[in-house]
Design a protein that fits this description.
iron, globular, mainly alpha, two-stranded antiparallel ribbon, oxidoreductase activity, transport, heme, Globin-like
Length: 161
């Protein structure tokens, strides 16, 4: 996977160490991430519908069993990326397909910057003082590589869509 800037051994260690502190409570920390996401961009709530039901509020969405399953899946993707830091390219096909799935439900590539901000916010809240500038930079690089792979799954759409 081409990330532009490969992760150094120290960055990989920082990511693993910080993820170990967060990954034990994936739903709890995922709720922090998605609460922040909906605070930053409330319109993203419209993308989440289960059984043709639109949620009236972020709180309703965040407590729905189907959405909690989505949170678990998101946290598993992060876990997979952390587990494969030395060989992110082995996740490339999976991430391309994940990008296609997100495009199919109406997610815009631009929304992933807000997701990235929300991920960093969650890590900062959960890690406290352990969330150093170096940890932030390492996670930003990893997230950038994941998003770049997902973007390759987007099909080219005609202008004006």
């Amino acid at each position: 996977m081409e990330s532009g800037m490969p992760l150094s051994g120290r960055e990989r260690a920082l990511i693993r160490e910080s993820w170990q502190r967060v990954s034990g409570s994936p739903v709890q920390h995922g709720l922090v991430l998605f609460t922040r996401l909906f605070d930053l961009d409330p319109d993203l709530l419209l993308l989440f519908q289960y059984n043709c039901k639109q949620f009236a509020s972020p709180q309703e969405c965040l407590s729905a069993p189907e959405f909690l399953d989505h949170i678990r899946k998101v946290m598993l993707v992060i876990d997979a990326a952390v587990s494969h830091l030395e060989n992110l390219s082995c996740l490339e096909e999976y991430l391309h397909n994940l990008g296609k799935k997100h495009q199919a439900v109406g997610v815009k590539v631009e929304s992933f910057s807000t997701v990235g901000e929300s991920l960093l916010y969650m890590l900062e809240k959960c890690l406290g003082t352990a969330f150093s500038p170096d940890v932030r930079e390492a996670w930003s690089k990893l997230y950038g590589a994941v998003v770049k792979a997902m973007e390759h799954g987007w099909e080219a759409l005609p202008e004006g869509d």
